[in-house]
Amino acid sequence: MASVRGPPKPIVPQHVVRTTPAAFPRPAYLDHSALRHLLQVEGPEPPIPSRRADASASTTSARNQAYANALSVSSDNDDTRSASSSPVPTPLPRVDQPLKLPTRWSEQDRHTGLSVSSDGRELIFNGPSCSAEKEAASARTIYPIPRACGIFYYEVEILGKDQKAHISIGFASKSGKFVRLPGWDANSWGYYGDDGCALSPERSGFQYGQPFGTGDFIGCGIDFSTYKAFYTKNGILIGPVFDNVGKNGDLFPSVGIQHTGESVRANFGQDPFKYDIDDHVQQQRNVTWNKILSTSLNRSVLHGRYRRTGVGSIASITNDTGVQQSLTEEESKQVLNQLVMTYLVHHGYAKTAHAFGRQYEGRDKDPSKDASNTSGHGPDVEMKASSSTSESVEIDIQSRTNVVNSVLAGDLDSAIGTLQKRYPTVLEADDHMLLFKLRCRKFVELFLETTEMKKRMKAIKERELAKSKAPELPLQDTWMDEEMSMDIDEEPSVPHHRRPSIAPSPMDHTEELNGKELWSPDTISAQYESALNAALAYGQTLTNDHQSDNRLEVQQLFKKTFGIVAFEDPLDPSCPVVDVASHDSRVALAHDVNQAILKSQGRPAQPALETLYRHTATAITQLGLSGVGAAAFADMSKEFLQP
Amino acid sequence: MPPKPSIRKEEWERRLHDVQVTKSDLNRLVMDYLVIEGYKSAAEEFSQEANLSPPVDFESIESRMDIREALQRGDVEDAITRVNDLNPEILDTNPALYFKLQQQKLIEFIRQGRIPEAIQFAQDELAPRGEESPEFLSELERTMALLAFDSAPNAPPAIAELLSPAQRMKTAGDVNAAILESLSQGKEVKLVGLLKLLCWGETLLEEKMDFPKLNVLEGTFGETGKV
After folding, report:
1. Model pLDDT, residue A81
2. B19-55 confidence digits (pLDDT tens)
3. What is the separation, in whole angstroms, between the first and last Cα of chain B?
4. Which of residues 613-642 of A touch B (CB under 8 A)?
5. Looking at the complex, does the CB of residue B14 fall below 8 Å from at least one CB of chain A?
6. CATH architecture of A14-288
7. How confident is the model at residue A379 (pLDDT cuts 50, 70, 90)?
8. Using omega within 30 degrees of 0 as the cis cutoff, is the peptide bond preceding A49 cis?
9. How far is B22 from chain A (nearest CA, A)?
10. Nearest Cα to B72, choosing from B165, B143, B175?
11. What is the ipTM metric for this complex?
12. What is each CA distance from B172 to A323, B165, B177, B178, B192, in whole angstroms?
């Protein structure tokens, strides 16, 4: 049989082996949960079973309990600590806090007559048999079931000798006292082997499935998307049972045993399951997703309004008949078109935006004309897209794109120029912060030019040294060769149009064309010096203009910007100031500029479409963590992002 | 009962920031919308500008849109011919869709006042199919009821709506979905799913806690708990 145990057991010191369960990968069926990244089986070195470990296990539960209190509206919670806690909402836990899966029976939370095997999976009843109907020795797992699983499932093998085992398999809350069968205490549910009854405190026992006993594998699951339990027997589904399971507060897998010598072995995913739980979950996932897709688009939600008038409940909303709450198909199309259009405009997809706007207008006018001779919709639905694709918008996209591209090319003068002309408020905003950033970048570009010249000078000097041993070659050619090679492997970040400023055009110096001095190292070095002086002069102006600005961000950027002067090659990836000099910092600045322009136009810094995605993902994750299991089946990355 | 927990705007925005989604992810969502809704030239431009390969060929977008337009202007016969040109299996394997198209054709006859033709068409083409299934029969009856009223406004809404542009759009939408399915392309626009998920999720989360609500079109948030 193929092993599904996953990574080999880690090597651990002998003295802890007795109680170290094998590490195993997260059961595959849990991959269908959108919150799978938070669901954790224990690591290879679980802290058991000393007193210290028990303490740590119970603090975990306490934290989970506090967490449930923090998030649960209802307060029907049996934990005394939380009941006495102040009514101030507990701070929310971090969203990236892992949720531990129950993978073994607790050494502590059990009836004293039950013993737990060293791997934490077997329960054996050694105490005297219980005589009363509901009396039993029960146990639960160390961790509660995270509702973010969507569906949780485990199987139990009946090891005892009885054909009809006096065993109840199910779930229990933290309040159980381990002297009852699951299904007899409040907030517990069970399936009983002796007569096949389902036990729940609300309904007592009722006929559910067949009796079970030795050799049988009983599977037991909770579907948190419906708050129903289900059982399987030897790999076959019996069906859903019980209501409101796990709706309020955490539940643990729990087993209760009544007769001496009876025992069970649980499979929390360590071994392959008898039942095809993966398929079960997948189907339930699809059911849930289709239900979500049948939601109608609600006007208030889309406008970000609270729909509650008083106490928040769906009933009070549906009674509110003042406004039509659902969007018509036409209206939802408008919402989508606007989201798409603003997205295209935001990122400067000018041609697409243009084509989209034209097609949209063209298409939706005809049917409304047609409609005028029939009853029903008049031409009252006018499209918004027409105005947003007007010429001015296209020009705007164009100049915004130009500014961004100038920054990317290192042409800061042109970027600042266009900004001054078209978006003066952008430069003024935030006390000229962006202008300052752009000017700092200009200083960086100027200085990078000088380092480039210096590199070239060095190369020429070396070449000349070599040439001096073969003095026939004229030096012009050397320079030209150099120029050519520089062009070929030119760094993309070095702006092309700057090239002429590096060496004066030969035409300016015709009278010297025959003299060797023109290309002599001295001349180049003079050019280098003048470029360096120009750069430093610019830097000094910058200092004079902004010295009095005491903002931390300004001062820091100052320091970093001038820091590059100390380095011979700031673009060298190993250089400590490379993040100031590199092309990446141009990209970041270009991004800032784009945001700033959009902001100045009263548009959001990120497209509404992106905010919509991020907000929805955040809300769904929070919903899953708040105990709404159905949220686990709203897998956004699978539904929306995977091709 | 303790007050509902609440999340402040700053915390919420920090979480938004941590959501894993890239510009190219969003570009693909936009492309999905352009393709399924049939914005052919926009889809073409977008695949250039955003450097995205389109999920289907652009010609199929065009023929889908031709079919949709034919239905929207009431030329059902043209639409049927075009669907069969594209892929005859679409209607062969989908009797319910074929019935809907025939029903739409009947509606168009009635709209144009071509009553004898309407009756002939109903008797020849639709009545035999009404015998096949009770659903078809009830739809046929509903459509024939249009003849009982001298003008549409006098008919009960459930019947008059057959003459509305929405009915044409609905038929066009069903055909569009069937074609997309035959191209193994998703038929539901993913962005619509996203909006629905938002409505579903926010409604449930509101019962659990206070959190900043999003104004979808503006992309802005209100303060937590502010109505």
Report:
1. 36
2. 999 888 999 999 999 988 889 899 999 998 888 887 7
3. 22
4. 613-623, 626-628, 630-631, 634, 636-637, 639-641
5. no
6. Sandwich (2.60)
7. very low
8. yes
9. 9
10. B165
11. 0.80
12. 29, 10, 9, 10, 18
Question: Cβ(A228)–Cβ(A245) under 8 Å?
Answer: yes
- Chain B from 17 to 46: CB within 8 A of any A CB: 17-21, 23, 25-26, 28-30, 33-34, 39-42, 44-46
Q: Does residue A545 contact residue A440 with C-beta atoms inside 8 Å? A: no
What's the CA angle centered on A444, arms A441 and A448, to 5 degrees? 140
* Separation CA A324–CA B109 (nearest Å): 34
Per DSSP, helices labelled H in A294-408 are 299-302, 314-318, 329-346, 350-371, 385-388, 391-408
Mean pLDDT of A351-360: 87
User: In this structure, what token pair is assigned to residue A344?
Assistant: 């295209």
Q: pLDDT tier at A377 (50, 70, 90 boundaries)?
A: very low
Q: Which amino acid is located at B164 in the chain?
A: S
Distance from CA of A29 to the nearest CA of B (A): 23
pLDDT digit string, tens, across residues A458-486: 888 888 788 777 655 555 544 444 444 43
Lowest model confidence (mean pLDDT) among A158-167, A236-245, A246-255, A518-527: A518-527
Q: Output DSSP code: residue A145.
A: P
What is the per-residue DSSP string for A320-353?
--SS--BPPHHHHHHHHHHHHHHHHHHTT-HHHH
In b/e form, how buried is each residue of A8-27, taking b as 16+ CB within 10 angstroms? eeeeeeeeeeebbbbbbebb
**Which residue of chain B has the CA closest to A618?**
B16
Chain A contact for B227, CB < 8 A? Answer: yes
Subunit contact A351:B217, Cβ cutoff 8 A: no
How far apart, in whole angstroms, are the C-alpha atoms of residue A31 and residue A564? 49
Centroid of chain to Cα B80: 18
User: What is the rounded distance in angstroms from the CA atom of residue B109 to the CA atom of residue B118?
Assistant: 5
* B185 in contact with A, Cβ within 8 Å: no
Report pLDDT for A506.
42
- Residue A245: phi and psi, rounded to 5, are -80, 125
Q: Give me Rg for the CA atoms of chain B.
A: 23
